[in-house]
Amino acid sequence: GDSVTQMEGPVTLSEEAFLTINCTYTATGYPSLFWYVQYPGEGLQLLLKATKADDKGSNKGFEATYRKETTSFHLEKGSVQVSDSAVYFCALSLNNAGNMLTFGGGTRLMVKP
Amino acid sequence: SAVISQKPSRDICQRGTSLTIQCQVDSQVTMMFWYRQQPGQSLTLIATANQGSEATYESGFVIDKFPISRPNLTFSTLTVSNMSPEDSSIYLCSVEDPGQYYGYTFGSGTRLTVV
What we know:
By secondary structure, chain A is mainly beta.
């Protein structure tokens, strides 16, 4: 079945450090890929997405590129801030109407001042 | 993007009782999804709810434990029945958002603690 694997956390960084959170997937079709963020005590918010190979999603300084050849969608940010501390979820959805999201296990990011 | 109002935001319940969680969407949507997030874990899909038909449950989830209603295209409820401490989780509803190409919007979640 479809699955998403992301690096385990927590990831602890100092402010302004470079961030990479790895995400790889297995899918029977051609999925859309997503990164969601969950700030403490809140629900999930869509951070960025990519719907086909080689697409790059970007938002709030974060970016991720859909790599079909390596089945990956790694999240990167050049300079993290304390306010980026949250749990990040990689997810996929097959491109059919009504398909639900399949989530990775989540990666907690802690940014220290 | 769609806006989802989910309530209650949190509750503490006695074991053996039931809690009904509501999700109201500000636009009509075909599919609504209910997820569970156990403490420190990722999200697991409970069921998919279509208006006018019975919900489709994922493996490990049954209608008697998690009955779902979907009376119209903007509203759904999930009931957690005969609760035990193992049901303590965050429950989230989600919709496929027509404002986002293949995107999904989530409610803010219901944090349930069963004592």
